[in-house]
Specification:
The complex is a heterodimer of chains A (225) and B (251). With 225 residues, chain A is mainly alpha-helical. Chain A has helices spanning 3-21, 23-43, 48-71, 76-81, 83-89, 94-123, 128-156, 163-189, 195-224. Chain A has one domain (3-224). In chain A, helix 2 (23-43) runs antiparallel to helix 3 and helix 3 packs antiparallel against helix 8. Chain B is built from 8 helices and no strands. Chain B starts with a helix and ends with a helix. The chains are: A mainly alpha (225), B mainly alpha (251).
Amino acid sequence: MSTQALAFKTLLKRDLTLAFRHRAELANPLLFFIIVVSLFPLAISPESKVLQEIAPGVIWVAALLASMLSLDNLFRGDFDDGTLEQLVLSGHSLSLLVLAKVLAHWLLTGLPLLLLSPLLGVFLFMPTPAIQTLFITLALGTPILSLVGAIGVALTVGLQRGGVLLALLVLPLYIPVLIFAANAVDNSAAGFDVSGQIYFLAALLSLALTLSPMATAASLRISLS
Amino acid sequence: MWAAIVRFYHRMASPRHFYHLSGKMIPWFTWAFFLILIPGLYLSFAAPADYQQGESYRIIYIHVPAAWQSMFIYIIMAVCGGISLIWRIKLADVMLISSASIGAAFTFLALLTGSLWGKPMWGTWWVWDARLTSELILLFLYLGIIALHAAIDDKRVAARAVAVLALVGVVNIPIIHYSVEWWNTLHQGATIKITQTTEQKAINKEMLIPLLLMAVAFKFYYASVVLMKARCEVLLRERSTQWVKELVHKA
């Protein structure tokens, strides 16, 4: 195994281990996701027809916010205790290390959210094909959210009050994902073919996968300077 | 020839040289702005009324140049961001951040005039139409850049952070634009296209000329205002250097 791959694997393992040592925090984004979704029937209407209509948008916006909120501590701990500087100095490709951290973050927040989403779909009376599409769009979309969000986090990691600023930087960049994903779920509920939207999300994912680690690495270097 | 361009480029990278040269350029740009604006405005009112929209279409002469300008300035900012990150030229940082608030202002102007135009034409101030939405998102991107620059205390770090953000934004703008376009469209299609087939009704020449004049006038306005802002920024950043102190003593 090359040293780069070894570094990737080690960092991934380290991040996952660290997260499992703080198990209580792991559930927080997930709980946030569930609570936000369950607020909508209370706020709008418990009627199944209304809920069915708004369900794709509600679930997607909740997923987007949950992902963004959990992103804030993607680099925070490592920045505070100096691990981040060691990573930059390690001589391995910083983009690759960033990718390992983002992957760990997605496995801890995106994946549980993805697995829970069919249940929430049932909660909001979504038809079965729409739930399937919801699952596919979340599977393709949540990694994009983590990857793009990482750029914003890297830019704001050195700041004392980065939280609200992060939302301002990152949310506009999430809009294309939101549009295609919610549109796909809507269309599949109406019985249309959604392969176009799915392909587009896949294209966005590959674009984010290739470009965003570089931008994140550059931003981290700036934040550390 | 090439050597002269390179020399010019290197001299422009020096804040001091930039300060003196831009001081000479600003009056030219300002005069050019007024000289083009006046015939532009005159012809805007002299142009024939639209066969469908009557007189109220004339807001196009502000609305469309402002919308072009909002995108043009963002691209300039992204180019400055690239220059700043690759060659570490301080002036590119200065131009980037000086452009941000002007770009945001033009974006806001485009939205405002669009909304004023939308009320008589579509019967509503705002619709969630593709172009309006992407213009609104562009405004958010501008505000994000301004907010990030304001949040970082060390302005040299801030400038580089903003440069990265501008580049990330410029990759996203086409994606946002087309995703929003696909999502919903009510706005009239682009009237001015570079390639035109004969069946497509293009804009009348008497309407096109003032539109282009106004667009050029807006560009000169931007050039002169951005240089004014950049000069202030340069003085602020270089305040501890000898030449700025001399300048202040002379004044």
